[in-house]
Amino acid sequence: MKFEGELEEEFYQRSKKNAEATGYKLNSDYDVITTAVKGICNNKRQFGEYYCFCQKRSGDVEKDKKIICPCAARSRDVETRGACRCGLYIK
What we know:
Distance between the termini: 20 Å
Strand content: under 5%
Structural class: mainly alpha
Oligomer: single chain
Number of strands: 2
């Protein structure tokens, strides 16, 4: 998988390693991956953190820590729905 920007490529590789280390996989759907990676990297550029693009930021840095990818809800969502909310991580 190839991304246009260095930030996107770096985040993708980081997510791939995280998925392997935690027993998950990255989605095999190219469109889902590129949408998630680009959305999360846009948040990194705009807000300074890899905030999950599918969750609303409160603006409170402490509260928003729980939505930094991989977010706090990832494990629950993957186990109950088969994928995290944005679809990046799957069972």
